[in-house]
Amino acid sequence: MALKFYMTPGSCSTGIHILLETLELPFEAWIINIPAGDHLRPDYLKINPRGTIPTLVLDDGRALTDFRSIALWLAETYPRGRFLPQDPALAARAVELLDFALIQLHGEGYTRIFTSERYIPSSEARHGQGLKDDVASHGREIVSQAFELLERRMPAEGYVVGPHFSIADAALFYNEFWADRIGILLPPRVAAHYRLVRARPVVRQVLAEEGYRS
Ligand SMILES: N[C@@H](CCC(=O)N[C@@H](CS)C(=O)NCC(=O)O)C(=O)O
Q: Does pLDDT of 127 surpass 70?
């Protein structure tokens, strides 16, 4: 049985899509249309009860149901991809940056921008759009501050840890891509990292497959 990859074009699953294509692994892509509610359908919830993407179902049927676990599984299962440095301190740094991208940028920041309604108690729902706008602008502040923090620890050039493209680069990339799409300014080193990753042929291929022109 081939790997089954559940993804939504232009979402965080793009980072995993890049890792899969970099490894040139055969996989079946299952498109989950979030706006249409595919992620909440009973057949998908059976695979990933949290109703989020990405999900990767392994060839023995076990499901990995978040970005971090999929990225670590790919890095450890396919060391030829060099997605984690061999030096333990650098590998730990890659995991730190991966988490920063997933938790701070995505979880704290973009989630407020893309799903502002989740931060408004139902008792306040009557204030509707105004409150949603406040939540979204708070999300933009969080994202900008997180990129500024990242900037201070970003190498002047190249990938974020060592000479090879890592799981941290994949996680940072989709957050940078979102910033580009919604007009959040990236600081210089982060912007240079975004350009570097975006110019990789495999990344151009993935973005084209997901419906974006480079
Ligand atoms: N912790 C999960 C979160 C992933 C996540 O939030 N994915 C978004 C798309 S980028 C999603 O599935 N949204 C649907 C929802 O939260 O209902 C992970 O890292 O994989």
A: no
